[in-house]
Amino acid sequence: MALRVLSVTSELHPLVKTGGLADVAGAPPPAPAPHDIEVRSLLPAYPQVLRKIGKARAVHSYKALFGGPARVLAATVNGLDLLLLDSPALFGSREGGPYSDLTGHDWADNWRRFAALSAVGADVAAGAVKGWQADLVHAHDWQAAMTAAYVRHGRAPETPVVLTVHNLAFQGRFDTRIFPDLGLPPSAYSLEGVEYYGGVGFLKAGLQYGDAITTVSPTYADEIRTPAFGMGLDGLLRGRGDAVQGIVNGIDTTEWDPATDPNLASGFSMRSLGTRGGNRRALEKRFGLKRGKGPIFAVISRLTWQKGIDLIVDAVEHLVAHGGRLVVLGSGDSAFEGALLAAAARHRGMIGIVTAYDEPLAHLIQGGADAILIPSRFEPCGLTQLYGQRYGTIPIAARTGGLADTIVDANEAALAVGCATGLLHEPGSGEALKAAISRAIALYWAPGVWLAMRKQGMRADYGWERSSARYAALYRSLIDRSPAV
Ligand code: ADP
Ligand code: GLC
Questions:
Q1: pLDDT digits (tens, 9 = 90+) for 335-381
Q2: In terms of DSSP H, where are the helices of 163-241?
Q3: Is the CB of 327 under 6 A from ligand 1?
Q4: Ligand 1 mean position to 479 CA, how many Å?
Q5: Ligand 1 pocket residue status of 374, Cβ below 6 Å
Q6: For 279-315, b where at least 16 C-beta lie within 10 A, e where not — what string?
Q7: Pairing relation of β-strands 212-215 and 244-246?
Q8: Domains with residue ranges and CATH for the chain
Q9: Distance between CA atoms of residues 124 and 106, nearest Å
Q10: Against a cut of 0.90, is the pTM above it?
């Protein structure tokens, strides 16, 4: 019989997205065949979600859920079965994003919003939606992590829960005063429960209560068990022993296919790389770059310290002085936005920036640039290096987390064997980034080398098959040892 998985997430592409979590939560689920897994995803019915889903039917309702009436709606989008938490008080129309207002401040009631999402997750796991009983819950990040606590203290406490950590930096820490309103028994406020450094920790609770903890690459799974990357949780993670593992993300190779991508000016494949030039010209035009033969470097990123954007700001003079051009698509920290806009003004025709979130433009950049810069200080998995490789845009990235696991550095051995797909450099170092840019420019001009690397990346298999098999095996192992089944 199919194994039924309830996935709980705060974002899901193509309905609502602030980063890679949405892509992963919206990925084609482990297909029914060969794994025989049936996934339903629960997420908040934000206004933009309600606008996009079309028909939906109510499958459960609450008179009062954390202070207001709410319903659970069922809908199908892009072949994904969805359950939507429709709570006007918590997820209704607001000026801003899913987690914060227009000035970037977190919504003050985030604890209530995501405790509600998690509590509903546990209700669904316990059979609240007639005709659909989950065998296992898979929660993503701090916004859904409390599902594990509600399951454990709820009506189906034996249901196995997997928690995936997409980024340990976002932990959902709140004042201890919220505890009485969470609806958990007093015993849950303990070291083994939700208590975290004298407050309430949502992610911490999930790490504690989850039967299995996964993160999105093997290297990040190792890193977060060290004080340097553990962000205060490394001790707890080490204590969980074998329950913690890394499973690298895949990408949706249908949505990200350079041969059929409607966002490209000109489609291409490995055998028709000549037509890729149409995208390069479209990029030059869109970003106001002077036409030229030299390499176009790209950045597609949240503009934050994690992503090493300050290192890029420091490296732009070097990049331009060595004949590179740069296109940036990003939004986030206003200081970084300002610094990049200033660099673009200083180097008109060589640097172009769009400070927005623009999904079609992200595709065009991947299809037209030569290299993508990802100097992250830490990177749980990273997806832009995978999209880049599939589209022939070579990643230049910090050797950390998923970047280290998915890029073969163009060192002498890899060049000799013919398996290099990118360049890796020491994380957090401006000098290392500049050296990598110089190295890339030299490889770009070396006859045949760039083209060979481009093809090696395009040939690589970054689809979901292998990782889906690992999730399926993990689900089965938890079900097999669960007394409930
Ligand atoms: P993170 O989730 O930490 O932001 P990832 O590399 O895992 O990093 O995922 C980022 C996702 O967001 C990718 O799909 C990338 O294409 C997309 N993205 C980032 N910034 C932008 C932007 N400004 N416009 C469009 N897409 C963006
Ligand atoms: C997070 C991480 C990123 C990862 C994504 C999807 O946003 O920062 O590295 O790729 O989640 O798992």
A1: 999 999 999 999 999 999 999 999 999 999 999 999 999 999 999 99
A2: 202-209, 218-223, 227-230, 234-239
A3: no
A4: 34
A5: no
A6: bbebbbebbebeeeebbbbbbbbbbbeebbbbbbbeb
A7: parallel
A8: 3-250+465-481 (3.40.50.2000), 270-459 (3.40.50.2000)
A9: 27
A10: yes
